[in-house]
Write a structure and sequence with these properties.
The protein has 42 residues and is mostly loops. The chain has no helices and no strands. The protein is elongated, with a radius of gyration of 17 Å.
């Protein structure tokens, strides 16, 4: 990334923070993140 591009960068990361997932040994979990773009406010 060029040196000043961080000023225009947006980083979006998924997380399970409100209710952490605890798994028993041998179990699996799958999550989903859905992003939608809407109109910009004036």
């Amino acid at each position: 990334m060029p040196p000043q591009d961080w000023l225009r960068m947006l980083c979006i990361e998924a997380a399970v923070a409100a209710q952490p997932v605890q798994l028993a040994p041998g179990k699996t979990w799958r999550g989903l993140q859905r992003l939608e773009a809407g109109p910009l406010s004036p």
